[in-house]
Design goal:
The protein is an alpha+beta fold and 92 residues long. The protein has one domain: Double Stranded RNA Binding Domain. 11% of the residues lie in helices and 26% in strands. The strands form two sheets. Strands 5-2-1-6 form a four-stranded mixed beta sheet, with helices on one face. Strand 3 and strand 4 form a beta hairpin.
């Protein structure tokens, strides 16, 4: 089973950095979504796609994946760019 491991980024809509150090392990979908003939909603029988595991460190997440035989793809967190400006720049 394939999974992806990434570090939670800071939300763009908030200034807080709570839970940004957590590592998340999500399972990748292995089957196609199909339309329900009665309602037309899409779905599948893959329930592991609804699971999101949280870990305090990358090493703990990799140890869990190795113990459970998961193939893990590690997605790096992008660089944090700061836009430094003075308050007076808002009025220029």
């Amino acid at each position: 089973m394939h999974a992806r491991l990434y570090q939670r980024p800071k939300p763009a809509t908030q200034s807080g950095r709570a839970h940004t150090g957590e590592w998340l392990l999500e399972f990748e979908r292995d089957d196609r979504m199909r339309a329900d003939p009665l309602t037309g909603w899409t779905g599948s029988g893959f329930t592991a796609g609804q699971v999101q595991l949280r870990f305090a460190s990358q090493d703990a997440a990799l140890a869990y994946a190795k113990a459970n035989g998961l193939e893990v793809e590690i997605l790096p967190l992008g660089p944090r760019r700061l836009k430094i400006q003075a308050y007076a720049d808002n009025f220029r």
